[in-house]
Specification:
binds adenosine-5'-triphosphate; NAD; alpha/beta; IsoPropMal-DH-like_dom; two-stranded antiparallel sheet; 3-isopropylmalate dehydrogenase; 3-isopropylmalate dehydrogenase activity; binds magnesium ion; 14 strands
Length: 366
């Protein structure tokens, strides 16, 4: 018996739809990995989203947020579903997620997009373009045009209706996202591409200036800059050229969805949202998938890979993270597939069985 080196508290927020199914698998994978690596976890499971609406009348109960804030990391399943789309109080489950991000002050959203050799045929791109893609989009999450003021609907001098929004970034906001991006690139292949529109937008001119300034703290990372229109094109033309991409809130929203479509496997993609201190929020990028909820059909691997991100980017437990990533690849190599990634000649399994196979692979990694 190994003495636990470290002890962490993780808040589990299963949420709605397939959330509870994939969280249950991910928790088992985390538990086994932890016991092998000599780490101890305590779990606090709390309601969020539609589940919380039904129980307490609000999508993010105060107790859920407090527990999340006091833990070392937060693992979320998914939020929302048809059931709450037209509820009387007009409280949407999804607002729970926005408030959770706000409450945890997570300003950096990390979204990897890798084309795994076993799933290259799922890519929307030609095989030779897709093969070997392994990139990470670091998106600024709490600033920019989605939050900037002034904003609103109004009337101009000709009496015509107008809508307006403001792209604002303060230097501290750019500096802190840049540092996270450089650190992320350092943990990967050491290449960072900053995406902006500095030829047109003043907010982007400051962005570029600050990213260049922060670069001096990271001489080991190779920095380049790209305009967003070109980046959108390069992502489908030659995505292999990218390692880590850092960009603002709106460009990151668009580019991270574009990057995820390159892989074509929504059930495989994890994400992390982190701040300067305090717990990070880790979740699959897919939604609650109400069409397959409760049928044991969900692919749990996006959530399992979110646990790997939790270990790597949330707790710095890199060995444990690597063990989980290797286990996922091993499970795919042994031919197991849920319906969303199935192809002829592979073995079709449900969510639970996929989880059991991942556990075997976790156990067999040296
Ligand atoms: P959001 O809730 O973020 O708006 P959405 O409703 O657009 O997301 P999802 O809930 O992610 O989309 O579902 C989109 C499609 O992908 C559905 O057909 C769903 O069944 C499928 N899907 C999503 N996640 C998974 C998964 N983990 N395993 C298998 N299929 C999935
Ligand atoms: Mg949905």
């Amino acid at each position: 018996v190994t003495t636990p080196r470290k002890r962490y508290t993780v808040t589990l927020l299963p949420g709605d739809g397939i959330g509870p199914e994939v969280i249950s698998v991910a928790k088992n994978v985390l538990n086994l990995t932890a016991s092998i690596e000599g780490i101890q976890f305590e779990y606090k499971e709390r309601p969020v989203g539609g589940a919380a609406l039904d129980l307490t009348g609000v999508p993010l109960p105060e107790e859920t947020l407090l527990t999340a804030k006091q833990s070392d990391a937060v693992l979320l399943g998914a939020i929302g579903g048809y059931k709450w789309d037209n509820n009387e109080k007009h409280l949407k489950p999804e607002t729970g997620l926005l408030h959770l991000r706000e409450g945890l002050k997570v300003f950096a959203n990390l979204r990897p997009a890798s084309v795994l050799p076993q799933l290259v045929d799922a890519s929307t791109l030609k095989k030779e373009v897709a093969e070997g893609v392994d990139l990470m989009v670091v998106r600024e999450l709490t600033g920019g045009i989605y939050f900037g003021k002034p904003r609103g609907l109004g009337t101009n001098e000709n009496g015509e209706q107008i809508g307006f929004n403001t792209e604002v970034y303060a230097s501290f906001e750019i500096d802190r996202i840049a540092r996270i991006a450089f650190e992320t690139a350092r943990k990967r292949r050491g290449k960072l591409c900053s995406v902006d529109k500095a030829n047109v937008l003043e907010a982007s001119m400051l962005w570029r200036k600050r990213v260049n300034a922060i670069a001096s703290e990271f001489p080991d990372v190779e920095l380049s800059h790209m305009y967003v229109d070109n980046a959108a094109m390069q992502l489908v033309r030659n995505p292999k050229q990218f390692d880590t991409i850092v960009t603002n809130n709106i460009f990151g929203d668009i580019l991270s969805d574009e990057a995820s479509m390159i892989t074509g496997s929504i059930g495989m993609l994890p994400s992390a949202s982190v701040g300067e201190s305090g717990p990070g929020l880790f979740e699959p990028i897919h939604g609650s998938a109400p069409d397959i909820a409760g049928q044991d059909k969900a692919n749990p691997l996006a959530t399992v890979l979110s646990v790997a991100m939790l270990l790597k980017y949330g707790l710095g437990e890199v060995n444990a993270a690597n063990r989980i990533e290797a286990a996922v690849l091993d499970t795919l190599n042994r031919g197991f597939r849920t319906g969303d990634i199935y192809s002829p000649g592979t073995k079709l399994v449900g969510c639970k069985e996929m989880g059991e196979e991942v556990l075997k692979s976790v156990d067999s990694q040296v």
